Amino acid sequence: MVTLDGGYRAFRRWVLVGLWGGLRLPPRKPPRVIVADAGSDHLHEFSLDGQPMKHSGGKGSLPGRYSQPSALACDDDNHFYVADTLNDRVQKMQGVQLPGFPLKVAKKVASSKELKEPKGIAVHAEKRLLFVSDGHDRVVAFDTRTMEPRLEIGESGTAEGQFKSPSGLAIEDETLYVCDTGNDRIQAFSLEATPSCDFDRYIGVG
């Protein structure tokens, strides 16, 4: 068992750990673990044996600063994405170094509403889509190359395809899983027919 100790400061809230190895860095760059620490508004980098390496961020609204970073995701192009929750945005970062430098900040979405407290993000590397859940009770998909919105899923409610405070997201094969927190369930959506995204099934509902 490996214990991660920030070294720089005690973690006030552990939110998500993302394996930097998923970025497929060159061989001279061994895999790393990146932690989004929402309590201190920092990202921390560790080696796989738990040794602290670097940290970046700090509270603020400038690029590279955060306000309660809540989730991490990575793509196949050496970028990682940070759900910068209380700044109402997602920051796209260069994943080959930490601290990273934002390339784009995603704010405008398909419905013309701005992102509101994004809490979950997931990347479909092959389709080059970044999925973001936010406080408007929906999931929005962005093109990872342009950060332009591609599709929007859901609205407030309890029916299938509707959400109440969606949070964590995950993708496996061609299925998007949404943690529909306020409705006490997980919803699964098929991505096979993207740009459409069709409800598939509930998980955890008796």
Stretches where pLDDT is under 50 for at least 5 consecutive residues are 8-28
**Mean pLDDT, as a whole number?**
80
Assign a percent range to the helix content.
Answer: under 10%
Q: Element order, helices and strands? A: EEEEEEEEEEEEEEEE
Ends distance: 35 Å
Largest sheet: 4 strands, antiparallel
Counting DSSP H or I runs of 4 or more residues, the number of helices is 0
Cα radius of gyration in angstroms: 17 Å
Task: Estimate what percentage of residues fall within beta strands.
Answer: over 45%
Total number of beta strands: 16
Name the overall outline.
globular
Arrangement of strands in the largest sheet: 1-2-3-4
Structural class by secondary-structure content: mainly beta
Q: Could you give a short description of this structure?
A:
The chain has 206 residues and is an all-beta fold. The chain has strands at 14-19, 32-37, 42-47, 52-57, 69-74, 79-84, 89-94, 102-106, 120-124, 129-134, 138-143, 149-153, 166-172, 175-180, 185-190, 198-203. The strands form four sheets. The chain has a four-stranded antiparallel β-sheet with strand order 1-2-3-4, with no helix packed on it.
